[in-house]
Amino acid sequence: TLITTTAAQEGEILVNELLFNPKDDGVDFIELYNNSDKYFRLSDLILGRYDKDERKDEKPMTYLDYIIHPHHFLALTTDTSTLKFQYPAQDILQVASLPPMNNDAGIVLLLDKNGIILDSVPYTETQHFELLSDVNGVSLERTHYTGKSYNPMNWHSASTSSGYATPGFQNSQFLDLSQQNNSYTLVSKTFSPDGDGYEDILALNYKNEKNGYTANGYVFDLAGTYIHQPVNMEILGTAGLLSWNGILNNGTKIPVGNYVLLLETFDLNGKVDKKKLAFSVVGVF
User: Model-level pTM?
Assistant: First the structure.
């Protein structure tokens, strides 16, 4: 199929995710998102940065004939092997260099081949979620494509369940603006942690109408006796999956029986929601 590429305009291709303070043995990455129905040639795009009101380190991303397809993601890094080892990476490309990104603050620039700015993303370490005790290795994700890049409210730390970064695929904190209510549902109301490959984990799907929720989950038997806490201060995305393998703190498996998962979610404004989800442990093990 013949593909026709075109020059990108502002808003058509975006900086979508930044890892500027990697783990000690990690690497930076910058993720792009093609927010259009067009095809763009990567060699026509330039990354750079602002430093003390000066544009610096502006270089073409690659000289390879690489095309970014409509509504696709691409993460750029100097070491794809390390990135794949540390995160569940998908569409990533190794480049010779990225503009230097300070760990505390900076401004990343995305330009066309004529030097026209297509996107500009100021970032600071203080944008990370307040309850994170360590932000090393945690990316900042754009929450939706219509919000302005310079607005810090349009960025959020990647979720715990995503591994704290999502290079090359949809952000864990992406907001579905049609989602009006929070939703928490068990994939199955039964599970059997016996290692046979069928319903070995208790899995919970969630969708949130906004970012910034943290979750705790407590398991009780039907007499109200506390059994286990499978979810402990989990930083949620806007959608994701929580899972538990049925192993208790003493190393044994949860006994066969009927239970309740009390899921408690809260945000930084102090809003607390609680939901009870019944499930059964079945099987012989």
Answer: 0.75
